Amino acid sequence: MTLRFKLDENIPRRVEPALRDLGHDVETALSEGLAGAADPDILAACKAENRLLVTLDLDFSDIRVYPPGSHRGVWVLRPADQAFTSVLNLVLAGVRLSAIERTAGQLWVIDEKRVRIRE
């Protein structure tokens, strides 16, 4: 299944080609001139483009501000460090899980041990 991603500016740039190589449709906040944009603006762009946001920004995990169902989907990554391989491994864990679990409108918080899903 092909997923449509928008990678936040805090995601290592090498994640983009890795996801494209797997056949996914990937855009980045940086390539779309959204560097430094407010969180609501980034999420609005994702919603307009029907894209799932992948970010390290914990602000997006606040369901009072960004309730599930109000967006296309958000994956908040919680790696042990921000190295490329650590971040990529969490994204790939999400991709694998998305093969059996719905992502639309959900908040996923992904760390090395588990994926917490808020619907």
From TrEMBL:
Pfam family, one: DUF5615
Organism for this UniProt entry: Candidatus Accumulibacter affinis
Protein name, per record: DUF5615 family PIN-like protein
Domain DUF5615 positions: 4-112
Source species, domain of life: Bacteria
